[in-house]
Design brief:
Blueprint: E1 5-12, E2 15-22, H1 33-44, E3 63-64, E4 77-78, H2 123-128, H3 131-134
Antiparallel strand pairs: 1-2, 3-4
Length: 137
């Protein structure tokens, strides 16, 4: 079976050149759905927007628990006086301006994914490394 012909147009020394060459045998290979799925799913990951909270979020105040005996919850309370913030709960996930439960900064995520990577080889790629096997008779 003859391979399809490819037209090549170019210019050498100011003269227009047009040639016909046989399409390489590698282009007649079947499309591998697993490779197509791998490439498209990893390229889609490069459109994600990173999200996380600061590592210091919710721990930027000086606070200490008042202990028992004051008829208040044993949550750490902001120190000081003369401001509305003094005496308010701090650090806890149930407190206003406290840290969140299970902060997302613990996720050390790689947001950009490199698409090129090791994949199981196909028989066709092994054939393409041997030029004598690619030639059709």
């Amino acid at each position: 079976m003859a391979r399809p012909q490819v037209s090549i147009h170019g210019c050498e020394d100011g003269a227009l050149i047009s040639r016909q060459l046989a399409l390489p045998a590698i282009f007649k290979a079947p499309i591998r759905p697993d490779v197509v799925h791998f490439v498209h799913s990893n390229i889609a990951k490069n459109h994600r927007q990173a999200y996380a909270v600061s590592k210091e979020a919710g721990h930027q105040t000086s606070a200490e628990s008042w202990g028992t005996g004051r008829a208040v919850a044993r949550i750490p309370r902001v120190r000081g006086g003369g401001t509305h913030r003094a005496g308010q709960g701090a650090y806890g996930n149930m407190c206003r301006s406290g840290r969140m439960f299970a902060p997302t900064w613990l996720l050390v995520a790689t947001w950009d994914v490199s698409v090129s990577g090791p994949r199981p080889p196909s028989k066709l790629s092994e054939r393409s490394t041997h030029p004598t096997l690619c030639q059709e008779t």
